[in-house]
Amino acid sequence: MRAHREWFNQAIQTIEADFNRSADTHLIPLQLPGFPGIDIYLKDESSHPTGSLKHRLARSLFMYALANGWLHPHSTVIEASSGSTAVSEAYFARLLGLPFIAVMPASTSRDKIAAIEFYGGQCHLVADPTQISAESQRLAAATGGHFMDQFTYAERATDWRANNNIAESIFKQMALERHPIPRWIVTSCGTGGTSATLGRYVRYRQHATGICCVDPENSVFFTSYAEGRQDLTLTCGSRIEGIGRPRVEPSFIPSVIDLMLHVPDAYSLAAAHWLSDKLGKKVGGSTGCNWLGILELAQAMRAKGETGSLVTLLCDSGERYRHSYYDAAWLSAQGYHLAPLYAELAACADSGAPLPSLRSASLPGKLVS
After folding, report:
1. Does the residue 362 lie in any domain?
2. Are residues 101 and 38 in the same domain?
3. What are the Cα distances from residue 160, in Å, to 46, 156, 291, 317, 327?
4. Which of 85, 76, 80 is nearest to 105 (CA)?
5. pLDDT for res 36
6. Is residue 276 situated within a structural domain?
7. Can you give the pLDDT at residue 369?
8. What are the distances in angstroms from CA 263 to CA 169, 270, 352?
9. Staple 173 to which of 27, 48, 279, 319, CB 3.0 to 4.6 Å?
10. Percentage of the chain with pLDDT > 70?
11. What's 328's domain CATH number?
12. Do 226 and 301 belong to one domain?
């Protein structure tokens, strides 16, 4: 028992030391000529040591598992993940000297698989993406390991009140800006943990900020929110890696979300390409999905003569999608023709030209005005 307690103490210190070494991520301002008076910012989560927003989640999940006594020196760590969470968990597992297995859809990009393996993780590919959680549970039982289960624990592993979570970080970095309290923060849903943290924090701090969640095709979150249903399932997974789910996950907390938007995948990918050219660095498809939410809200604000600030997340680097979203042959094979959509997005940013309205949903009494 004492040896295990000493291991726990050392493991927690190791993860805390990693936190101390990692500077906060940057908040990048973007001025769009088509939306004067509306300031837009991207929180660049790709600058984490493992290159994505999921670094925060993985760190919180490991701390939560350690504090609950679920990990020990001989644990095998297992996670159900489409990529970025697995990359980050492989990193932390290696820090603690624990083996790591990622259970993931067979369609996951080769670059993400390579990143997991770079950190010493193993990849267990599953043909049916709806079965990755069940397969993770089976593997955990077979190996005597621990299933981290990001989809259940994401909303509770993060301290949403403070501790430099992503919400607190955004508001601290916005403090000296022209419009320091964002009118909206836009995020996408994978586990639902980020939207839960943001929504809880703005209520706790009494900020007049709306939380808008965007959802891609082949995901149940938008319909679940709009219809108030928790029993929805799909037989396929999202093509925008890292977001969207074929079932309503336990960490998805609709009551802290003010508005949801449904974004077509082709627009998400076109937006990723446009943002990559604008920023001089490639971004992933989930960031493109977020960007459509920003443009929808900016159009609504301009139509009402409002000024203010909008914040969204740059979730991960597009370098992880060189063989998919940034590969012309792959795009063609999937039936994506991005050039006309790219032109629409550029015209919207430059002159405020309208984009097709996205499907939207809000709960009664929410901040949608």
Report:
1. no
2. no
3. 21, 8, 24, 25, 38
4. 80
5. 96
6. yes
7. 57
8. 27, 12, 19
9. 27
10. 97
11. 3.40.50.1100
12. yes
Instruction: Decide if 255 contacts 359 (C-beta within 8 A).
Output: no
pLDDT-flagged residues of the chain (< 70): 1-3, 82, 164, 365-369
Are 195 and 278 contained in the same domain? yes
Asked whether residue 5 is assigned to any structural domain, the reply reads no
Neighbours of 337 (CB within 10 A): 11
Residues 258 and 308 in one domain: yes
Token output for 322: 């060189």
Residue-level pLDDT at 150: 94
- Residue 231 has φ and ψ, to the nearest 5°, of -100, 10
Q: Are strands 146-147 and 38-44 parallel, antiparallel or unpaired?
A: unpaired
pTM of this prediction exceeds 0.90: yes
Q: Is residue 13 part of a domain?
A: no
Asked whether 185 and 170 are in contact (CB, 8 A), the reply is yes
Task: Report how far residue 198's alpha carbon sits from residue 299's, in angstroms, rounded to the nearest whole number.
Answer: 23
Per-residue pLDDT, 3? 64
* Domain co-membership, 163 together with 201: yes
Q: How high does pLDDT run on average in the chain? A: 93
The number of domains in the chain is: 2
Indicate if 26 and 65 belong to the same structural domain: no
Single-letter code of the amino acid located at 43: K
Task: Say if CB 360 and CB 260 are below 8 A apart.
Answer: yes
In this prediction, residue 81 carries a pLDDT of 87
